[in-house]
Amino acid sequence: MRVEVPLVGWPYAWDGFKIAQLSDFHYDEYFSAVPLRSAINIVNGLQPDLVVLTGDFVTVPVFADYLHNAERAEKDAEPCARLLGALRARFGVIAILGNHDLGSDRQLVTESLQSHDIPVLRNRSIPIEWEGSRIWLSGVDDVLRGKPDINRTLRAVPRNEPVVLLVHEPDIADQVALHSVNLQLSGHSHGGQIRFPLIGPPYLPKLAHKYPRGLYRIGPLTLYTNVGLGTVRLPMRFNCPPEITLLTLRAAAAASKEDRSPPQRTSEHMRASLFVGRSSQNL
């Protein structure tokens, strides 16, 4: 899915900035590994400026206890992270965790991702600077199972500087819209996985009923909900294919649709910010 997203207050220097979003991998070696490999090849071919991963790398089985959940995470987290480590973008790859990740083993999933150079944001914001212009990337802890704190997440962001916020559950957008956030990127819903014509999905998870897929405007906030790559409960999709999203962010008042070239080099400032205290702040 290719989406152009005009954002009020988005800097002209970043007009044309491309973000590839992947979500809800629910890794297993039989059903999700093949589409995940294909998705990685597709994303790398798109040459995005940034890749964001919006949670649920592993799956909490139904009716399993914590011990079995941890065993499942140990089995699936590392191979999933290893595959995702092949993603390439000018400004790198950033992740947040989802409710299944926290229901299994937060620390193990986090360490697996970070061992493959994929930082995990938890109630934290980091800046990217380019030619005197700055944007912020923020990540909120999972709403259902974690300790989300939007105020803490945005504390370091100066007033009126643009923010892209990652949060697994989309329906939290009603609260996010009360803060100075330009764009929220979420997953969690799977789009229902099975969608019947005229009826829609028979089931949507908690906090994914209101904004289950696609682009929304909630007051000053823009939200995009990605329907994910993997599956839960039943390893099938109907009328709801897995999704790779390429979002092109536009300064809303830009007069031209010409794709201005974003930075051609990796921002050392961003990389330094991402890895400061990664062993302590993100676990």
| Helix count from the secondary structure assignment | 8
Can you tell me the residue ranges where pLDDT is under 50 for at least 5 consecutive residues?
254-283
Report the top-level CATH class: Alpha Beta
CATH topology: Purple Acid Phosphatase, chain A, domain 2
Question: What characterizes the major β-sheet?
Answer: 6 strands, mixed
Total number of beta strands: 11
Strand order in space, largest sheet: 5-6-7-8-10-9
**CATH architecture classification:** 4-Layer Sandwich
Number of domains: 1
Give the distance, in angstroms, between the N- and C-terminal Cα atoms: 32 Å
Beta-strand level of the residues, as a percent range? 15-25%
Mean pLDDT equals: 87
| Series of H and E elements | EEHEHEHHEEHEHEEEEHH
User: Helix/strand-derived class?
Assistant: alpha/beta
Principal-axes shape call? globular
* CATH-defined superfamily: Metallo-dependent phosphatases
Measured on Cα atoms, how large is the radius of gyration?
Answer: 18 Å
